[in-house]
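Marked as duplicate of an earlier ticket. Keeping the data here for the record.
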Amino acid sequence: MNRDRQMFRLPARVLHWLMAAMILTMLFIGAGMVATVSDKHTWLLALHKPLGIAILVLALLRLALRLLHKPPALPADLPPLQRFAAKASHALLYALMFALPLIGWAMLSAGGYPVSLGAGVLLPPIAPFDASVFAVLRWLHRSLAYVLFATVLLHLGAALYHGLIRRDGVLRSMLWRGGSRGCDVEPNVHASAPASPVDAD
């Protein structure tokens, strides 16, 4: 098996780690916004808006790359329950990467708040001005943020499980192209299993 087929393409790997950093930053910014009512809240909000839109744009790009190029398959000997969990968690992760920015955008629109990207760039409202809609969307945005945090932790745990316990090449496929040290030193000898759009990140 060609080793390249066991690796994500370079653009996919770059997007993965860039978005991972952005999502973690967004979660910390969101936590900071909830925890403070000082002037820092305004500053954090000014970061939160454009970062959320950037995540939405990159998620679209990442999905396009994923549809154009099949990801490496999961090991054929992975238990069915773990295979299902991998598919479900990745589908959920992609759904949240789209839903949270869009819900946040709609929430601000419903509250009558501008969605500023900086440098005088404003996005148009995507929801009618309505205080009750704003309240519902605010609750939904916050609730889904907790779901995203839990999903990220699950994703991290699964990556470590594949890299440190199974050592089946799944983690290595998103890290580097070659080498014989570190996690996942064994090649994924089961890479011929049928690929799925949500088999691996």
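See parent ticket for discussion. The longest strand covers residues 115-118.
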